[in-house]
Amino acid sequence: MSSSVSVVNEGGVAIVTIDNPPVNALSFHVREPLMQALVALRDDASVAAIVIACAGRTFVAGADITEFGKPMQQPELRAIVAALEVIAKPTVAAIHGTALGGGLELVLGCHFRVADQGAKLGLPEVKLGILPGGGGTVRLPRLVGAVKALKMIVSGTPIGASAAHGAGLVDAVFEGDLTPHAVNFAREMARKGGPFTPVRDRDELLRGTDLASFDAEAADLAGKARGLEAPIACAQAVRNAVTLPFDEALAAERALFVKLVASDQSRAQRHLFFAEREAAKLPGKDVVKRRVARVGVIGAGTMGGGIAMAFANGGFPVTLLETSHEALQRGLATIEKNYAVSVTRGSLSEDAKRQRLAQFKGSTDYADLADCDLVVEAAFEDMAVKKEIFGKLDAVARPDAILATNTSYLDIDEIAASISRPQDVLGLHFFSPANVMKLLEIVRAEKTAPDALATVVDLAHRIGKVAVVVGVCHGFVGNRMLAARGSESEALLLEGATPRQIDEAFTDFGWPMGPFQMGDLAGLDIGWRNRKARGLTAVIADTLCEQGRFGQKTGRGFYLYEAGARAGVPDPEVEALIRDKAAQMGIVPRTIGAEEIIERTLYPLVNEGAKILEERIAARASDIDVVWVNGYGFPVGKGGPMFWAGLEGAARIIERLEHWYRQTGKDVFQPGPLLRRMAETGSWATDATG
Ligand code: 3HC
């Protein structure tokens, strides 16, 4: 008995309860007493059956991720599962909340699994750059079949209790307090009598595996792995479960686990796991948050509509405001169409669609925003327009309402200073499509009140966003760094690279798409308008826009999109235009390799990130990583630009930037103090972060 594991004997059924808040991770101080308890119960004649349950909000959510990368203390999870599996009395796992990773592997060591209706079961290890290392790849296929296990393990997405029941992973689903049901279930199994077959010996489903279709499915999944090693290893391990004897497959799983857990990719993905949780933390935890029951959104265009959907999806009633009845109807019709598409795709039920649409109230009258606790302005990106809107809001909004702007670039301090309650003003920078993209940059203005900030951080979590608090500067964290990348991409075109070459260097690096594909998708006119407002130019992109080539939506941008195709093809006209412009500027084209493309675009990105940290626009380097992975597609396996900079070495980044500045005739590269310090210490810690 320990404080983490307790045992009670209820009329011959032993209930083993794991209690390791917050998520019952299988830390050493759980594993050791758990193993002792199981060994004791195995030999205890007064015990006819065993139930494994958890205290608190969830069943075991996995191995303790903080222990990875350190010497593993015995007993390991594998040994516990093996000890559990040889117990001759019926063993039953009682699952509430989530049984994830090592938690699910533990229950696969039991003869039976029962769950409450809200339970979720899965093996999400792939998201940490590893594979299940406690026998999950070898046991799960024995219960649900190889192809189903492959999909679950490679995606890492958990399934609900009823789906798990249907798949054969769970034996019974109960309503209400689960433990008494699990005890009755265990008692009934003991009464019926054994022998009870451990999962390792249940080979029936595996014998029926069609290896050809398994391989086709695995190849399809591998094609989507974008350079990540873990999904490939997961597929290999599940295949081993089909083709190798149990113990050999288990040993192979172990070997793959050991290799992956030590890899940079897994270190990067574990870094991101903790970085996302860290980013949500604000100093002064005890701040009393404001109540938010209704949200107002101003502007029903692409951005406003998406933001309104994000709140409605999170269960909030939304008042959607437009300037005219026609614009409002257009916006509402688009929202309805978007939900209908989700129904067609099967990701939303007709009933859920009706419920979400019922959350919307349309209006053209600012007075209708008077009962909103949060109003998000998503109008045209123009300071005068924003100030006018905030003036109107100042007049109608309730006294404690939070007033947010969805600006991507504008000075929020200036907006706040234009009204009588600057303490209620902040930025909520959503990413398009706002109902889909995870990232939310929450911009703290100079006078934003701590309770307003804490309220929106909490709210962001409630609507499923990954929130990062940033300070005010042009473009905040993400778009400011993007600008540093963008200017080098243009320069590379003029010096001889093609859009496709640059985009391929990016996709080979692990990005879902390159900068020109992204520009074409987002619409080149957005950047053009923004440059014009700031008196900036980008010779190639500006010329394309002058020719009406705005990207995918006009069928032409950096690429050609024939007949509405989503994938563009290189356009000889664009390549000729680039050569002409270069000739006019006296630039002689040369061959440019992928390494140069990456160094010249991503090292300046890191340099800008370092400046952002120095200026305290971001609180931590890991916050910048969270922004870039969730908002811009920086490859997860590289952990975000600041983590990746650590792998590259800041000294190398400085040296190469000095080199490229010299080569391209720029001023001498001057690294900031933080980049210099990173080169010396290997840490991004600032005075503020310690
Ligand atoms: N190990 C260590 N700490 C963990 C943890 C884990 N497996 N899972 C969660 N935590 C910590 C979080 O870091 C957070 O700590 P903090 O409060 O100090 O920031 C705290 O627990 C609460 O976590 P969340 O904020 O994420 O809580 P939620 O309620 O939003 O989500 C959850 C709960 C769905 C369980 C989510 O935490 C989660 O997905 N956890 C990770 C699950 C996972 O990946 N499991 C596999 C682990 S690897 C493994 O098992 C290997 C095995 O095959 C050998």
In short:
This protein is an alpha/beta fold and 690 residues long. Helix content is 49%, strand content 11%.
- Count of structural domains: 4
What oligomerization state is this entry in? single chain
Sum up the overall morphology in one term: globular
Strand order of the largest sheet: 12-11-10-13-14-15-16-17
Bound compounds: 3-hydroxybutanoyl-coenzyme A
Q: Superfamily at the CATH H level of the largest domain?
A: 2-enoyl-CoA Hydratase, Chain A, domain 1
Report the structural category: alpha/beta
Describe the largest sheet: 8 strands, mixed
Characterization of this structure:
The structure is a single chain. This protein has 690 residues and is α/β, with parallel strands linked by helices. It folds into four domains: 258 residues, 2-enoyl-CoA Hydratase, Chain A, domain 1, CATH 3.90.226.10; 182 residues, NAD(P)-binding Rossmann-like Domain (Rossmann fold); 119 residues, Orthogonal Bundle (N-(1-d-carboxylethyl)-l-norvaline Dehydrogenase, domain 2), CATH 1.10.1040; 73 residues, N-(1-d-carboxylethyl)-l-norvaline Dehydrogenase, domain 2, CATH 1.10.1040. Helices cover 49% and strands 11% of the residues. The protein has 29 helices and 19 strands. The strands form four sheets. An eight-stranded mixed sheet has the order 12-11-10-13-14-15-16-17, sandwiched between helices. Helix 16 links the parallel strand 13 and strand 14. It starts with a strand and ends in a 9-residue tail after the last helix. The site of 3-hydroxybutanoyl-coenzyme A has 25 residues, from strand 5, helix 3 and helix 12.
